[in-house]
Predict the 3D structure of the following.
Amino acid sequence: MALVAVANLEEFTGTTRRTFASPLARKVAEQAGFLLSNVEGSGPNNRIQYRDVVAAIARRASADMPRPRHATNSSNSFLRRQMEPTGQHFNPKLAIPHFYIKTDCRIDQVLSLCEKANETSELERLSVFSFVVAATAAALRAVPAVNVSYTDVSLLLHKAVDISIAVPTPSGIKLPVIRNVDLKSQSMNSEIISDLVSRAIRGELDAEECRGGSITIFDLGAYGIREWAGIINPPQCAMLAIGAVEDRVVVQSGRIEMTKALTCVLSADHRAVDGATGAAFLRELTTALENPLALLT
């Protein structure tokens, strides 16, 4: 059955039910020809976020995709094709000495800021993901030893903070790059994320927009994944895997509290980043996410 985009869901359904969705989610759904009525929201009061739309589109693409006659033993075939412009056989998991460390981030303040900002601002709406991108940029500035690329000759230390974001699309995972993240406002980065996600889904990105970056952020929270570990995208030396926002119980100053939290797992190339450096990066990331006001300045 063909899916069509409609500007007004109430007119389409003939009901007065209101669909709560962020502007970014509406924009991506409209450009992909995907009805918001087919999406289950993960935000406050079941509000549909852009990540929910992306996940729904990816699930539809997976269901529609013909199955191969012979199963592959590679779990990262989409990423591998994305990372092999020459078509040569290369498995980054085997070639790169990965190690993994994780942190749990309380994001109650992030959610509160998103809710308040999105109620009053006419700019591109903020999201948990946009804060993760900003926090990653802050961590790269604080720990520049992670802002590197590996070559057979030397490590390349990047002056700019350019971050790749993984976008599931009908033709596989695309990795567009947000340039100079730390030099832009949150609203501007949110607008860039919206544009890149929309055009990635429509297949309109050019090769230059997917070139570069020193770290990739991949969010599988919309799939309900609590935590996971990603595969590094060479010549990058790190990948940040984001899980779902969940209600969790924590002990704070001897008291049991409920909090909203998510788990971030850093995959790092041990040839370029050691354990202490990776831990310092995650500490800075956690601090930034748990004190998000600083990310708005």
